[in-house]
Specification:
Oligomer: single chain
Distance between the termini: 16 Å
Radius of gyration: 18 Å
Number of strands: 5
Largest sheet: 5 strands, antiparallel
Strand order of the largest sheet: 3-2-1-4-5
Order of helices and strands: HEEEHEEH
Structural class: alpha+beta
């Protein structure tokens, strides 16, 4: 059972990281501030919620995923509004050549391309290690 779950979950994690890595790999970016004009907590059909914000970067209207910014997911719109009030300034990487919410990423010590490369390699290494351990436990 473990063997059957490692393969698909590991593959999905790897492919998401791989895709994100290559999206940001050669894209130019600037370190900017995102000024929040409104935060949104939108329930999805299959559970969970999307948490994002509209705001401005260099005077242009942009959208941003708030999940990486927040320590935990809010339970309501009111909680989100208290965590990210209008006027909040968030330090971001701004990718002017990309589209949608991909253009604005929360600033961290490691740029998005490198962070995603590391995640992809970790998923590959841990996935293969997990498969080897699982296969070894079945043969012994």
């Amino acid at each position: 059972m473990v063997l059957l779950s490692i393969l698909p979950f590991g593959f999905v994690i790897f492919m998401n990281s791989w895709s994100r890595w290559h999206r940001y790999e050669d894209a130019s970016y600037h370190h900017r501030d995102f000024q929040v004009t409104r935060a949104y907590d939108q329930a999805r059909r299959k559970g969970g919620a999307e948490v994002y914000a509209s705001g401005t970067v260099d005077g242009d209207r942009e959208w941003m995923n708030l999940r990486p910014y927040l320590q935990h997911g809010p339970t309501s719109q009111a909680e989100l509004d208290s965590l990210v009030p209008v006027g909040t300034s968030i330090s971001v990487y701004f990718f002017p050549s990309l589209k949608g919410r991909s253009r604005v990423q929360v600033f961290s010590d490691v740029p998005p391309a490198e962070a995603s490369r590391r995640e992809a390699m970790d998923a590959r290494n841990y996935g293969l290690g997990g498969l080897a351990l699982s296969a070894g436990s079945f043969s012994g």
